[in-house]
Design a protein that fits this description.
It contains seven helices and twelve strands. It has 234 residues and is of the alpha/beta class. The chain has a single domain, classed as Spore Coat Polysaccharide Biosynthesis Protein SpsA, Chain A (Alpha-Beta Complex). It binds cytidine-5'-monophosphate.
Length: 234
């Protein structure tokens, strides 16, 4: 038997959101961000295992919080690390041996649509070793020097904003983490690329945005209200 696991880094402090609880535990529509994210992952077809990297002091609380959210999947909660990358690495150590596909999803993307999770998982199962969901950019992007002077303007048609979940075969992801020479890469595909492994893209979704700044929470509340008004459970 081979199973698919969702790994959820949720140990960030969320400083850019302002003072308060760790980001993954901030409320959205009455439940923590993490609950929304884990619910979407566990509703996705084929996700059998969920491993959450929680803030170090909140491991038991998070386990209790999620035990009812994850009804059909197997749940493990571990203590996260000082960086996102180390939180993912700690979660990978806890994977059951029969897992061969891993989706890594930020707790900070609570409103990821279930069908987008499935799109990533299907692409890995179909043979891609590394899959990332992306969106075209709406803003023009500039590269600047240390003083803020514009150096260049990359062709926007070749740029993409990257979301999660990112999907990998377990061996590719574990190898990339084992060989990592840095500890602060902000997405797992970044590590996999350094191994020379091809990373393919699938279509992301506007509602999979990351809650980072206070304004993002306002937007997330609005999206959730619209979903609930439309009869979607969330
Ligand atoms: O900081 P940022 O919003 O980019 O974090 C992305 C995700 O990584 C969040 O879900 C956050 O909880 C997680 N993270 C973590 N451990 C850290 C830092 C961030 O699990 N030390």
């Amino acid at each position: 038997m081979s199973r698919t696991a969702a790994v959820v880094p949720a140990a960030g402090k969320g400083m850019r959101l302002g003072p308060g609880a760790p980001k993954a535990l901030r409320p959205l529509g009455g439940s923590p961000l993490l609950v929304h994210a884990v619910r979407a992952l566990s509703l996705a077809r084929g996700v059998d295992v969920v491993v959450v990297a929680a803030p170090e002091d909140e491991v038991d609380m998070v386990r209790a919080l999620l035990s009812e959210v994850v009804s059909d999947a197997e749940l493990t909660v571990v203590a996260g690390g000082d960086t996102r990358q180390s939180s993912v690495a700690r979660a990978l150590i806890a994977l059951p041996s029969d897992v061969d596909v891993v989706l890594v999803h930020d707790a900070a993307r609570p409103l990821v649509p279930v069908e987008m999770v499935e799109r990533v998982a299907v692409a890995v199962r179909a043979g891609a070793p590394a899959v990332i969901p992306v969106l075209k950019l709406v803003d023009t992007v500039k590269t600047v020097d240390a003083e803020g002077r514009v150096v260049s303007t990359p062709d926007r048609s070749h740029l993409r904003a990257v979301q999660t979940p990112q999907g990998f075969t377990r061996s590719v992801l574990q190898q990339a983490h084992a060989n990592a020479e840095v500890d602060d890469v902000t997405d797992d595909a970044g590590l996999v690329e350094r191994q020379g492994v091809e990373v393919v893209t699938v279509l992301g979704h506007e509602e999979a945005f990351k809650v980072t700044r206070p304004m993002d929470l306002v937007l997330a509340e609005a999206v959730l209200s619209r979903r609930r008004a439309g009869g979607v459970v969330g």
